[in-house]
């Protein structure tokens, strides 16, 4: 059965950094590039159009859609199919429990659900440190993530990592161990 990793957490919790560490451990780990409709940062996204989004929705191929920062971010079935066909383990970054649940429920694979966490203050420091021009929006997203977890206390996580005390390399090793033992 195909495998995948769902990384959930607030902005600047370390999703990109831990993903890089996982890819360094094993080339089968690949970041899933969500489809993005909108403007701004294009790094790490497959840029799409409203017409493409409409077509995916018409065919039932949108597994999860998130509207944030004035853009639309999509986890799509064809995108996941393309990554998994070569035996790769996609790593999806999600900021909402609903997204984790939607992907895990609607795409057949053995999903490892990972909660990466850091404090609001750490999000602010990391966001400013990496030069984000929208730190205030990211702090609003942090607040939404915290509220999301409060409302979804029954959400199940295979692993919770506090990235303020756990290095990215250690987090990656823990996740890799989880994925390998669940195969």
Automatic annotation (TrEMBL):
Keywords: Kinase, Transferase. It comes from the Bacteria. One of its GO terms (molecular function) is kinase activity. This is Guanylate kinase. It comes from Streptomyces caatingaensis.
